Structure to design on (181 residues):
C-alpha cells in the first residue's frame, strides 16, 4: 500500500505561510538534495488555497508544476484547475485518498495546506511527516496544524541538518512516521 507524506517547510514557530499566504521566507538555498524527496513520490495532492497561491506566484503559467506526477487539488468551490494535468477533486477526501493509497505507485505527497492536512490527519490518512524546520519566527501566519480532534502519536525516523553557508545558518529536516492504531 502506498503512503501519504505530509511534506512542508515550516517556520520554527509552526507556520507554513504568512497570514496573506506568502512563503517568501522559505528558501531553496540549503545544502539539501531536493530531488531525493521528489524521486520517492509520483502523486501530489493539495488544497485550493495552496493551488491559488501557486497560480498567483506563477502568473501566465499554464502547465502542471509537478510535470510527470498525478496532481490533484481538493476544492468544494473550484470546478476546474485551469491547467492540463491537474485534476480538481470535490468528493469525499477519505474515499478518494484510500483509493489512491490502494493503487500502484510511489508515495503520495500532501503538499498543503493546513486545513487539508488537518482533514487528512483526522481521517488517519497520513503515514509520514516530512518537515523542513526553517530558522525563522514569523510570529503569526497560517499554522501547519489547525486544531483537530485527536491525538496522533509519531515516531522520529530521521533527522538531518541542512546548511546555508551564505546565511551561516541551518535548517532541520525531520521525518516522522505516524503510529497507526
Amino acid at each position: 500500500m502506498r503512503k501519504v507524506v505530509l511534506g512542508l517547510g515550516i517556520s520554527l514557530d509552526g507556520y507554513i505561510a504568512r497570514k496573506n499566504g506568502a512563503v517568501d521566507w522559505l528558501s531553496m538555498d540549503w545544502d539539501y538534495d531536493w530531488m531525493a524527496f521528489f524521486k520517492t513520490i509520483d502523486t501530489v495532492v493539495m488544497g485550493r488555497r495552496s493551488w491559488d497561491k501557486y497560480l498567483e506566484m506563477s502568473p501566465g503559467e499554464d502547465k502542471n508544476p509537478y510535470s510527470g506526477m498525478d496532481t490533484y487539488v481538493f476544492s468544494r468551490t473550484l470546478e476546474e484547475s485551469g491547467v492540463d494535468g491537474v485534476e480538481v477533486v470535490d468528493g469525499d477526501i477519505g474515499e478518494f485518498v484510500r483509493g489512491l493509497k490502494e493503487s500502484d505507485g510511489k508515495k503520495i505527497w500532501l503538499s498543503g495546506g493546513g486545513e487539508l492536512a488537518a482533514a487528512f490527519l483526522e481521517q488517519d490518512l497520513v503515514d509520514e511527516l516530512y518537515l523542513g524546520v526553517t530558522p525563522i519566527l514569523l510570529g503569526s501566519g497560517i499554522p501547519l496544524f489547525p486544531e483537530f480532534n485527536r491525538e496522533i502519536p509519531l515516531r522520529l525516523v530521521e533527522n538531518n541538518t541542512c546548511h546555508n553557508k551564505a546565511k551561516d545558518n541551518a535548517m532541520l529536516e525531520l521525518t516522522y512516521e505516524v503510529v497507526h492504531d
User: Anything to note?
Assistant: The chain has one domain: 4-178. The longest helix spans residues 48-57.
